[in-house]
Amino acid sequence: MKLKDSLFTRRKFLNTLIGGWLTALGATIIQPVIKFIFPPYREPEEVILPAADYELPGPNSFKTFPWGSKPGILKRNDDGSLTAFVAVCTHLDCNVTYLPEQRKFYCACHDGWYDENGINIAGPPPRPLRRLDVIVEGEKIIIRRKGESA
Amino acid sequence: MPKQSFREWLETRLGWGQIVNFLQKKEVPRHKHTLWYYTGSAILIFLVIQIITGFMLLLYYKPTLEKAYQSVTQIMTEVSYGWVIRSLHHWSATLMIAFVFIHLLSLWILKAYRPPRELTWMSGVILLFLTLAFGFTGYLLPWDELSLAATKVGTEIPSTIPLIGRWVTQLLRGGADVTGDTLTRFFGLHVSILPLSLILVLGFHLYLIQKHGMSVPLREEKQNRPLPSYPFWPNFLLRESVFWLILLGSLITLSLFLPRGLGQPADLMAPAPVGVRPEWYFLFLFQTLKLFPATILGIPGDTIAILLVMVAVGLFFFLPLLDTDPAGRKGKVITWAAVAFIVYAVVMSLWSVL
Ligand code: FES
């Protein structure tokens, strides 16, 4: 009887040891695997556009520019200033377009509408379009993430 | 060494006689609803066609941002019979998904998931999701305008799940946005991860079906008399093969007369094209999403919609455990739920295209 008991305990001890070791091994392996499958991503800090290409003469004219892997829209306001938006719908991420005649942004995916200031006015979009800061510096137009302009 | 025939030599090494024996003894019950037994093997037929045409397309397709669209154009215009193979791959996928739905819904209504077949049902639901994942990943691969926009929306939807949503979206996309990385990722899923998973789960599913035999509808079971049956080999298989031939004929006809087209090349910077729509099997979800208002009581409508869908999926998966009294009232309600679901899906799908 005694022998049987002690054998059982020894097996249990070894099982725990192996189980613990496997768990620890699994934990150390899983962390880098998860890290690996999520790619590194950084949104651009800023984008510099040559002013010559983005003259935008009249009020209400606009042009798109690449903001990382998303499109951005640079638009001349009525008072002559410039506004930049990330041209991606806040609903489900479709690219939006600006319709100058109607002074609205339009998303074709589920009929989303924003006014000329990027405020969501109709359809499913829950939030206004994201705005970016615009700084004109001589020959360059610098577009920065909101609130990060030095 | 005594002389053996080649057949005996093989038999000693493989032991295949057991399988032949098994097939000869296997009986398929015969009743009013025997027809529904054919839906399972229809799926298998299309799966085999998907694998073969998929291998063929792999010879020319290039899963990168620069080359994807161009290589599909090449398949369509230069490769001999390329357009036919691509069209077959598309239509066979369509029919396969259609039969997966028919298969599951008919089993739901006939309550084939009654004990001891609960796990057969659950593995079947997993197979449904794997099949849909094949459809979703494959849709992006031609990299045209519509497939890009539909994938953007499709991969953005999980991000509305509270807490883990953003994470899931990034995982699917291989980044914050749909880019060339997403294309490469979807390709890997479509040709390697999903096929391997499918084979594993399918093996399990088929094993269970062999183990438990065919389920007999409740009404027949209650009559307590032995049901007539056919031997699986050759009677049932020959009957089935007639059905397969009809399916094959329909598939080829559809592929030749309604060939799959290709839209404008995808442009990451272009505004979404008008008329973005997912494939038909996602239409009812698409329409549901469209009907939800932007916010309900301060909670985003999409979040509520997706949580409801997740609950529905959970109920569907655990259906065998919920239907504890198949012959009673609860069982009837569950059967009617299937009918209600069919009506809902059809109405919503039609609504979204009209
Ligand atoms: S993605 Fe723009 S309205 Fe849905």
Helix-strand blueprint:
The complex is a heterodimer of chains A (150) and B (354).
Chain A: H1 2-37, E1 46-50, E2 62-67, E3 70-76, E4 82-86, E5 97-99, E6 104-107, E7 112-115, E8 120-122, E9 131-137, E10 140-145
Antiparallel strand pairs in A: 1-10, 2-3, 3-4, 4-9, 5-6, 6-7, 7-8, 9-10
Chain B: H1 6-14, H2 17-25, E1 27-29, H3 38-58, H4 68-77, H5 82-110, H6 118-140, H7 145-156, H8 165-173, H9 180-212, H10 218-222, E2 229-231, H11 232-257, H12 283-291, E3 295-296, E4 299-300, H13 301-317, H14 319-322, H15 329-353
Helix pairs in contact in B: 3-5, 3-11, 4-5, 5-6, 5-11, 5-15, 6-7, 6-9, 12-15
The structure holds FE2/S2 (inorganic) cluster.
FE2/S2 (inorganic) cluster binds at residues 89, 91-92, 94, 107, 109-110, 112, 123-125 of chain A.
Report on this model:
Chain A has two domains: 6-40; 46-145, 3-layer Sandwich (Rieske Iron-sulfur Protein). Helix content of chain A is 24%, strand content 33%. Chain A has one helix and ten strands. The mean pLDDT of chain A is 86. Chain B is mostly helical. Chain B has a domain at 32-213 and 229-264: Cytochrome Bc1 Complex, Chain C (Up-down Bundle), CATH 1.20.810.10. Helix content of chain B is 68%, strand content 3%. Chain B has 15 helices and four strands. In chain B, the strands form two sheets. Chain B has a two-stranded antiparallel sheet. In chain B, α5 (82-110) packs across α11. Chain B starts with 5 loop residues before the first helix and ends with a helix. Classes of the chains: A alpha+beta (150), B mainly alpha (354). Chain A binds chain B through residues 37-39, 41, 43, 64, 66, 68-71, 87, 89, 91-97, 106-110, 120, 123-126, and chain B through 149, 152-153, 155-157, 170-171, 174-179, 181, 268-276, 289-290, 292-295, 300-302. Bound molecules: FE2/S2 (inorganic) cluster. The site of FE2/S2 (inorganic) cluster has 11 residues of chain A, from loops.
